[in-house]
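Quick one: co-fold with cobalt (II) ion.
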Amino acid sequence: MVSIKSPREIELMRESCRRLEIVHNALGEFVKPGISTMDINKYGEQLIREQEGIPNFLDYNGYPASICVSVNEEVVHGIPSKTRILHEGDIVSLDAGLIYKGYHSDAARTYAVGKVSPEVQQLMDVTKQAFFEGIKYAREGYHLHDISNAIDDYVSRFGYGIVRDLVGHGIGTHLHEDPQIPNFRQKSRGVKLKAGMTLAIEPMINMGRWDVEWLDDDWTVVAADGLPSAHYENTILITEGEPEILTLSTN
Ligand code: CO
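Sure, here it is.
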């Protein structure tokens, strides 16, 4: 069942997401060659707490950190480490979320560390644009899988692999609520979209094939072919008109 948030709940979702955007913007400024992925996690957790948030990823099914930091061929759920140093030319995906007054927010950005190759830059640009192609259909009158199909249609033009093992999700009083939101083409139409639904839409796109593997830490998801992968996510609200991107006030 996909929950419809009340006006009061929507206000709390907006506030949770507004605070998460502040965290993400500060983290984006912080990324540079020479820092460790643990530095990002520590700073991110501090920022979340400054925003009076609770890190929702910490201890989620045993996940040991507040920010998922995934480098290059790591797709998502990279575990921060003091010994993993970012180098010029890397890309790094930061997935962060918080709970504010009981309401979850969730968003991810992929950043270039210094200068990256044009091929890698295109992967990041397409992954971000995939989100925007998807949310063209995030409105009443459409169905959930119109979003999935729009993302697939756009990304497939570039020959990239769309990750299939992980999907977007509803969000609210829980980090993961119904519905699941695949980023690849669906045969069914999915549920009807209704004002008051809050959704985390999060394309995860591989430069090569879509296949992924899990590392021995049981968390880190990597592209099986070892090529780079990008992730871009926002929490959005379905309205009677344009969707509201709750974790993004400016593009
Ligand atoms: Co998510």
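If it helps, The chain has one domain: 7-245.
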